[in-house]
Amino acid sequence: MSDIIVPGFKGSELIAELSKAFEAYTPEERAKLIKQVNGVFQFVLKANGKEEIFTVDVKKEGKVVRGKGNVKADAILTLNDADFVSLAEGKLNGQKAYMSGKLKVKGQIMLAMSIKPAGAKL
C-alpha cells in the first residue's frame, strides 16, 4: 500500500495514482511536464473532521508527497475529500466549486485553475 493512501480519504487514492503516473514517466516526459505546468500544488483535503495534506511538485522534481513536502507551494487548494474526487473525475467544475465556496485557493489562483481532471494529464 502506498504511503500516500490514507484510510477515509478517497482522494488520497487518486493522488497515489498520480504519483504512480509520475514515477512511470521517463526523465524526458517528466521534464516536459515540469516545463508545461511549472507549479507546486498543495491539496488540503478534509473528511470526517480530519485533514490531510498532499503536495504535487510539478516545478522541480515531478513527484507527489503526503504532507507539505520540502518545496513551497505556489497554490494551496482546500476542499472536502468528496468534492476533490468529483473535481478529479471531471464531475465538478473547478470554477463553479471556487465560486460556490467548495474550493478555497491561496496563492496563484490562475495556476490552480489550470489543473485538469484526472482523465486528462495534469
UniProtKB/TrEMBL annotation:
Coiled-coil segments on the chain, per record: none
GO cellular component: cytosol
The SCP2 domain, residue ranges: 28-116
A Pfam short name: SCP2
InterPro entries: SCP2_sterol-bd_dom, SCP2_sterol-bd_dom_sf
PANTHER family: SCP2 STEROL-BINDING DOMAIN-CONTAINING PROTEIN 1, STEROL CARRIER PROTEIN 2 SCP-2 FAMILY PROTEIN
Name under which the protein is recorded: SCP2 domain-containing protein
